[in-house]
What we know:
By secondary structure, this protein is of the alpha+beta class.
Amino acid sequence: MTIAPAKLSDPVVGALVSAINAHDKDAFLALLTADATMSDDGSDRDLEQWIDKEIFDSGGHMDVQTESDGGLRLVANFRNDTWGEMRTAWRFVIAPGGGKISRFETGQA
């Protein structure tokens, strides 16, 4: 059973999942701080290059299966045209003052 992005506990994370699934890079970037960082499978990556390759240039889509930590941790089935579908874990850090994501970490679950 998947959790719809609008039903996720953290509205910023929900909006980010919605942006991924709508293939809306501008909306995705608007939810990040200017200095946001990310990692994939424990290795820090160049955020712009990674999101282009893994999400926006390859038809990325996220079906959230579970959430925890107030919606800041997700387990999702993520798929794209490069790797197919895999079970992934996501962790988000919201910047002080809320409203934007300053870091996200993902990897295989």
